[in-house]
Amino acid sequence: MQPPAEHVHWLFATGFLFIGLCLLAETIVGPEVWRRQAWRTYLWPGLAFVGGLFMWPVMVFYTNSTIHMIAHSSWAQVMMLAGAAELGLARGKLKSPYWALTVALAFAVSGAAMLVHEQQPWLFSRSAFLHHLSGWTLVGASLFPLGRTFRPSSTLLRAGFALSFVALAVILFADRDVAEIFGHLSPLAGTPRR
């Protein structure tokens, strides 16, 4: 028995919330204090990489069209790329700071894939609305990791980057496959669920 897609969204939301809170804690205490425990340095990049790995089964088991398969596989690839690049930077294996641009690429590709894979208009259902909202949030939030690449000591950019994960988690936690949005639900969407 396959769980509803909203349950998968909630699982990923939990992971994104944890990443966002860890990045926010690092921003508040400062990178020097955060990295006193060596394992913390690898925490968010490792979770991003593992999240990419978990996206592959989502692609296989929750695909109902070619566009969904392409969107989920592109998310998996860019999440793994960004996580691996950040792990390489944290470990010191990658020397160029421009590897951090992979995170901006991951945000932009994920946002674009989210927008492309939702084939319904904004107000079709809550799920359609939230897919559009999360897609545009990720596209806009890609400016934070882009800026963080060139100004890594900026507290504002680090906080914006962390809060991008928190915002995405909140959006994903609000997801219901078939639920009304703003008191309107297309009759074509199916029976509403709470």
Helix and strand arrangement:
Layout: H1 5-29, H2 31-34, H3 38-41, H4 43-61, H5 66-91, H6 101-117, H7 126-141, H8 143-150, H9 155-173
Helix pairs in contact: 1-4, 1-9, 4-5, 5-6, 6-7, 6-8, 7-9, 8-9
Descriptive tags:
194 residues; mainly alpha; Serine Threonine Protein Phosphatase 5, Tetratricopeptide repeat; 9 helices; 0% strand
DSSP strand count: 0
Order of helices and strands: HHHHHHHHH
**Low confidence ranges:** none
| Portion in helices | over 70%
Task: Based on the coordinates given, report the CATH architecture.
Answer: Alpha Horseshoe
Helical stretch tally: 9
User: So what's the CATH class?
Assistant: Mainly Alpha
Write the CATH fold name: Serine Threonine Protein Phosphatase 5, Tetratricopeptide repeat
The Rg value, from CA coordinates, equals 17 Å
What is the straight-line distance between the termini?
A: 20 Å
Taking all residues together, what is the mean pLDDT? 86
Structural class: mainly alpha
| Share of β-strand residues | under 5%
